[in-house]
Amino acid sequence: GAVVSQHPSRVICKSGTSVKIECRSLDFQATTMFWYRQFPKQSLMLMATSNEGSKATYEQGVEKDKFLINHASLTLSTLTVTSAHPEDSSFYICSADRGTDTQYFGPGTRLTVL
Amino acid sequence: SQQGEEDPQALSIQEGENATMNCSYKTSINNLQWYRQNSGRGLVHLILIRSNEREKHSGRLRVTLDTSKKSSSLLITASRAADTASYFCATDSDKLIFGTGTRLQVFP
Fold first, then answer.
1. A71, A79, A75: which is closest to A109 by C-alpha?
2. Which residues of A touch B25 (CB under 8 A)?
3. Distance CA B31, CA B51 (A)
4. Which residue among B40, B88, B95 sits closest to A43, beta carbon to beta carbon?
5. Is the backbone peptide bond immediately before A40 cis, with ω within 30 degrees of 0?
6. How far is CA B97 from the centre of its chain?
7. What local confidence, expressed as pLDDT, does residue B5 receive?
8. Which of A48, A99, B22, B80 is in the most buried spot, having the most CB atoms within 10 Å?
9. How far apart are the C-alpha atoms of B83 and B27, rounded to whole Å?
10. A97 close to A30: Cβ distance less than 8 angstroms
11. Upstream peptide bond of A107 is cis (omega within 30 degrees of 0)
12. Would you tell me which residues 22-51 of chain B have a C-beta closer than 8 angstroms to some C-beta of chain A?
């Protein structure tokens, strides 16, 4: 149990376009989901905490108007990278909290902005 | 930065040897967790140790925690080539803060 999926796994887009990444908890409900960003050979950096039915909480330095988060249901959170630029190219990983101390991570989405 | 530090950054060993990774952190914690990440993939939770615990075992994994020194270690015994991955510690206060990671390479 405790499976989290992400879609798409890879996406390539042109500069200036918007990209939506979905994070789903497949077999449990998650009131809280988290979005992380990981650059090559670096650690995960928390971008924002997504709470079902309320606004996301963004970490310092993360632009909320650029990284739009919607947690519309207890099993789905979406991250939209608006007006993407090459510097937004990264590995985006979500995780879901099922009420225990452990977060369950999705497989990640590799975004490449040309 | 709140991010923890891990050392070594990279570790190469032969199969059968033990691998030890260390993690230091800066703030008080509720628990500390270790995760594994294969290249380009998501994270897999390995083990959680609470702030009032000093040592925990899970199969070939042994984790220690010293809250007075704000440090933890992960020991993988009798390593296998399949253990090749990056290993991250993450401290949990009200959110997970990940360490810088150790890239482990186990040669057959």
1. A79
2. none
3. 5
4. B88
5. no
6. 13
7. 83
8. A48
9. 29
10. yes
11. no
12. 30-31, 33, 35, 40-45, 48
Q: Do B30 and A101 touch (CB under 8 A)?
A: yes
Instruction: Please judge whether A101 and B48 are an interchain contact, meaning their C-beta atoms are less than 8 angstroms apart.
Output: yes
Strand duo B31-37 + B43-50: pairing: antiparallel
Q: What is the pLDDT of residues B21-61, one digit of tens each?
A: 999 999 889 999 999 999 888 899 999 999 999 999 999 99
Select the more confidently predicted residue: A103 or A15.
A15
CA dist., res. A4 & res. A28, Å (int): 9
Report chain B residues whose CB lies below 8 A from the CB of A60. Answer: none
- For B81, the 3-state DSSP assignment is helix
Q: pLDDT tens digits for A42-71?
A: 899 999 998 888 889 999 999 999 999 998
pLDDT exceeding 70 applies to what percent of chain B? 97
β-strands B5-7, A67-73: how paired? unpaired
Q: Are strands A57-58 and A44-51 parallel, antiparallel or unpaired?
A: antiparallel
Write the CB contacts of A20 (distance below 8 Å, at least 6 apart in sequence): A78, A79, A80
What is the spatial distance between Cα A59 and Cα B95, in angstroms, rounded to a whole number?
11
For A93, nearest residue in chain B (alpha carbons) = B42
Cα gap B106→B22, rounded to integer Å:
17
Question: Which tokens hold the place of B40?
Answer: 């380009």
Task: Show the beta-strand stretches assigned E in A1-108.
Answer: 4-7, 10-13, 19-25, 32-38, 44-51, 57-58, 67-73, 76-81, 90-97, 103-105
